[in-house]
Amino acid sequence: MTAPVPAKTGDVVHLFNTLLSAAWYGVVCDEDTPQMMSATLEAVQGDAVLTTPVLVGRQGEPGKNAPIIELEFIDGLETFEDATTLLPDWDESMINHGVWLVDDKDNPTKSLVYIWDGTKWHKVLPGPSGPVGATPNISMSYETIPMNERSPGVTDTVEVSGDVRNPHFTIRALSPQGPPGPSAAIENSDGYDQTKTKHVGDVLTVLDDGQWGPSQMTLKQCRLYTIPEGAFTNTPNFIGIGPTDFSVGSYVIPA
Length: 255
What we know:
Layout: E1 21-29, E2 40-44, E3 47-55, E4 70-71, H1 80-86, E5 97-102, E6 111-116, E7 121-124, E8 139-144, E9 157-162, E10 167-173, E11 202-206, E12 212-216
Parallel strand pairs: 1-3, 4-5, 8-10
Antiparallel strand pairs: 2-3, 5-6, 6-7, 9-10, 11-12
């Protein structure tokens, strides 16, 4: 058995292990007289607070906005290799003009922006894409101004309604009239009662509901009938006697 080695001043001795729920705080220090590296841990049962010095520097100088690059498009310029020979030598009027090349053929750098400073070209990496901005939900409708409204002075108009997020544009235009289209089937018109079934010999008439529909012609045509003498009955002299109304004959009209 090995005898324990006595601890000396300055030695780090392991005492025990424990589970703590610790909150870490940073103590703001004066930047001119910073503290040495130190930490304080206070624990009560299972809760602990750990504090360390935090050095806060002075606010820096305000930054400058990056120049806005005005993109140009050059025919044939597609890859980084093309840029070595096809980039033109512009004059000072083209300062901050440039081209953005995307070359993902075995290149770790997928895209580069070439910027002209007035005398030479510079290659820079483009920044990350920004968030997509808010876009309105635009809706439109188109109306042809009727001929009876086309008085002198009437012109095409665009009426804007809705709000900024949901604008609606109504276009009323003096559209030219096209050639007359083919006549529609009677059964497909709005004023036709499609619940009625048509038969051979029916005619188009106005129904009780006010709509147009089929009807039998035999119920409406005029006919001339002759009642034979045998259809009449003999009657006595009824003037002044008996009932005032009585049958003088009967006849069945053929269908």
